[in-house]
From TrEMBL:
Coiled coil as UniProt keyword: no
Protein family (similarity comment): Belongs to the methyltransferase superfamily. METTL23 family.
GO biological process: chromatin organization; methylation; regulation of gene expression
PANTHER family: HEPATOCELLULAR CARCINOMA-ASSOCIATED ANTIGEN (PTHR14614), HISTONE-ARGININE METHYLTRANSFERASE METTL23 (PTHR14614:SF164)
Keywords, comma-separated and alphabetical: Chromatin regulator, Cytoplasm, Developmental protein, Methyltransferase, Nucleus, S-adenosyl-L-methionine, Transferase
Compartment list: Cytoplasm; Nucleus
Record text on subunit structure and interactions: Interacts with HSPA5, HSP90B1, TUBULIN, UGGT1 and UGGT2. Interacts with TET3. Interacts with STPG4.
A matching Pfam family: Methyltransf_16
Chemical reaction(s) catalysed: L-arginyl-[protein] + 2 S-adenosyl-L-methionine = N(omega),N(omega)-dimethyl-L-arginyl-[protein] + 2 S-adenosyl-L-homocysteine + 2 H(+)
Top-level taxon of origin: Eukaryota
Primary localization: cytoplasm
Name of the protein in its database record: Histone-arginine methyltransferase METTL23
Length: 194
């Protein structure tokens, strides 16, 4: 039985996003990276191990997920990576006081349509503060009826599709993990629409 706190598991999208980061590891040293909905934090940990300055975040309402972020950092010898409680759609002191960022990461954050607008409003806020930043996100296709296109338009955001084959992630197994499996996973990069 799955824990109601989804952030307690490594999901297939996290492995795919980690593969993208690994493929682009030479561009990561010195980059300021924020992972939202981090949970187990695989993408953020990979970015930190590749030299990025990483901040991990998950909902302030999910203390077990925040503790999982901290545990992942400790297990990977990254004790100084900050972990923040940031809840999608909520402007908090932690969100307002974030240092500048270059890349926002999110793996499988688009899993529940009721959260889509809160996620994109948070991304819009972050991109407005950091106009050159990008949101790198992977998501699992769960329903043909679920789309963020109208919300991207509403929040003045644009997306670019990143083909999985362009970074070697179009396989059922990645980095000794069978997690991608036969799931349909997509990757997009979201930025401000100019």
């Amino acid at each position: 039985v799955l824990d109601s706190q989804y952030g307690m598991y490594v999901w297939p999208c996290a492995v795919v996003l980690a593969q993208y980061l690994w493929t682009h590891r030479r561009s990561l040293p010195g980059k300021r990276v924020l992972e939202i909905g981090a949970g187990v934090s695989l993408p953020g940990v990979v970015a930190a191990r590749c030299g990025a300055q990483v901040i991990l975040s998950d909902s302030e309402e999910l203390p077990h997920c925040l503790q999982r972020c901290r545990s992942s950092c400790l297990m990977n010898r990254l004790p100084h990576v900050p972990v923040l409680g940031l809840t999608w759609g909520r402007v908090s002191p932690e969100l307002l006081s974030l240092a500048p960022i270059d890349i926002i990461l999110g793996s499988d954050v688009f899993f529940d349509p009721k959260d889509f607008e809160d996620i994109l409003s948070t991304i819009y806020f972050l991109l407005e503060k950091n106009p050159q930043a990008q949101f790198w996100t992977t998501y699992q296709v769960r329903s043909a009826d679920w789309s963020i296109e109208a919300l991207l338009y509403k929040w003045n955001l644009k997306s670019i599709h990143v083909p999985l084959h362009s970074f070697g992630a179009d396989k059922e197994h990645l980095a000794s993990s069978s997690l991608p499996g036969r799931h349909t996973i997509e990757m997009i990069i979201i930025s401000l629409a100019q």
